[in-house]
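Much of what follows relies on a compact textual record of a protein's fold. A record is reproduced here so that you can trace the correspondence yourselves:

. . .
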Amino acid sequence: MDTLTHGLFGLTIYCAQNREKMTSREKKALLFTAIVASEIPDIDVVASFTETGRIMEQMWHRGLTHSIFLAPIWALLICAISRWLFRIKAWRFFWTALLAVLIHITSDVFNSWGTGLLEPFSSARFTVGTIPIVDPVIWVLFMAGFILSRLLRHQPAHRIFQIAALCMFLHFSVQSAQGLWLEHQMKPDYDQVELSASFIPWHFDLIGKKGNHVEIKSVTLWSEPKLKQTLVSSEQSDLTPLFKKNPKAKVLYEWSPFVVIVDNSRQLGIYDPRFYRNGESFLAEYIHK
């Protein structure tokens, strides 16, 4: 998910807790804990400031920092910082921090980029593809909770945000169930199938590969699949020169579920068809001949 959405998850966690008996300092500590814990797995972006980090960005981003095994360590670290900053016993906020980190990690699994959920014990990328990286539905649900908490003064604000959080969970569940069912139905037609969620709720792009052909179809539960694009991959091409001259291409090849190979008189390259928009994919690596 994008940075804003992760931040809204953190704010929802904060607002959904009863803070009536908390001191001002405790409220600040709780807010700090919820927000920072919701963002901290993305600290891996600092690696992109190094040359090696730029080459390995595909593998390292959402890699070890997004591992479920690191989640308790993140939670303990944030609690320690919160205790030092606000001079309170912040250890009771451990479960808030752990919840926020786990929500970050698991929500990222649901979009096409995926996460290294089991690193360092497995380098496998876990991705469902049923939720877009930028999901306006989450923004709308948070804003609805915020507005209602201001309008319905007679209702406890934390109860309203608990309902908003439940609606977010239901959104993930319903949309993911639809996407996985559509993927299941289309699997027999292809050798490999991947999903990429649209920004429009309950709409998906299904990317299927059979032989050297890749089809991108727009699919929903209530309509027939609509073919958007047919791509041809040069499967017999030798990618050794590409990997030798462009190390990022090898990383992309290993990271993606499958790629489309481009080999013509001008260039040799690969791209991830899940991110194919307007005639090109923004995840692509080439060399000129």
Summary: Residues 240-288 form one domain. The radius of gyration is 22 Å. The mean pLDDT is 91.
